[in-house]
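During the second half of the funding period, the structural biology subgroup turned its attention to how the target accommodates small molecules. The most pressing case was uridine-diphosphate-N-acetylglucosamine, which had performed well in the primary screen but for which no bound structure existed. We therefore specified the complex as follows and requested a full 3D prediction, including the ligand pose.
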Amino acid sequence: MEHLMAVILAAGEGKRMKSAKSKVVHEICGKALIEWVARSVLKAGIEDRVFVVGHKAEQVKECLGENIQYALQEVQLGTGHAVMQAERFLRGKEGQVVILCGDMPLIRPETIMKAVRLHRQSGNSATVITADLDNPAGYGRIVRDERGNVLKIVEHKDTNEEERNIREVNSGIYCFNIMDLLHSLKELGNSNSQGEYYLTDIMEIFVKKGLKVDAFKVEDSSEILGINDRVQLAEAAQVLRKRILEEHMRSGVTLVDPGSTYIDGDVEIGMDTVIYPGTILEGKTKIGENCILGPNSRLVDCVIGNDTEVANSVVIQSSVGSGTHIGPFAYIRPESSIGNKVKIGDFVEIKKSRIGDKTKISHLTYVGDAEVGKNVNLGCGVVVVNYDGRNKYKTVVEDNAFVGCNVNLISPVTVRSNAYIAAGSTIVGEVPENSLAIARSKQEIKEGWVIKKGLRRKE
Ligand code: UD1
Ligand code: CA
């Protein structure tokens, strides 16, 4: 079996983005552009991948991680020059290399695989992926002879009038025979309008040498959208978002309004879950079956069980069990773990806390740095006072405890199982098992006080 590898070009500056960040680390649907390309290449079955980095290389490396093959292009002298920097990874290998630009996140793995198959079956030396565009401006044009054979690629800036009218464009993805490419790379020149070493010139060099060159045209031209500015970034995000949403709908998720639903690429959702408008699912979120999410909920890196409802709420980096009800208007902050059949109601904020099964926290409550057991009731307006201005402390409320309305639990403090706390209490010490704690001043009545003071109000 011949070797198959990929070189992904990500060293360019991306001037048109007008950004302090490298172009390829800009994100759509929860992933950097370069990550989308990297993922498609991997899904196409190509494991030997080399990334050419240069401009803001640190940002790109941080995004892709350490266990990756990098080639450094210190000065960005063009796409051909970028490939030259990866030569040491190509040398000595027999087979094909797929070269891709790091700014085209919409390419499908199947398309890469089909192009490689065509390349191998036809015995090509180079195969370029192309598409017909209504507006080809900015892309390199595919120039063919009268019989339809590919002759060369001409960059937009170097086209003559006739070439500018060609609608078939270079995607920026090619499959090359490694040996042929290595032989011809050094022949690239830079006498063009941008003074760059264009990889695209390899085509003409091959043709002149009599090597077989062909194009693989894709049906869906959105796949080859290259991102050069923020308008194209938004355009690509829209295409990708639609693809992701359709995939979920096809696997049994109801999206009441796909137009106002945003789901990142790595999110998993179980069957029969219904998602209402204005819902945003981000990061590595995993949703069970038969849940109801939204309207207007945002979940980031969350794991949610089955039959759980999250209405008008925000849940960040937390887990929620099954049969639980959250919202409307709740805020679950990172590192929280909410059990099964729990009720978290309106205007409740939970931070870095564990909430046991069947516990109810129904209204206007703050719980921070706490461990709350099973079947506990926290009444309306309970506040866990976890911060003294300097440090944070832990609160424990054990199983079956009943904490009345408007209670302050001054941390660190423990409420033992089955204990009751009277409404309005400020609790500073342990409440023992099965006991009642009342920590508020007794009600006093001063008879006739209003009249004595002359304060009676006239109608
Ligand atoms: C390139 C192609 C063009 C094609 C288009 C598709 C060339 C000369 N032109 O043009 O035919 O239609 O892509 O989107 O190849 N890069 C480097 N080092 C460099 C220059 C670029 O690594 O010195 C990388 C960039 O990071 C980017 C990719 O190569 O990911 C493409 O560069 P870009 O400047 O966007 O090329 P285009 O002008 O779009
Ligand atoms: Ca580009």
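Two results from this model are relevant to the next phase. The chain has a mean pLDDT of 97. Residues 256 and 276 are 5 Å apart (CA to CA).
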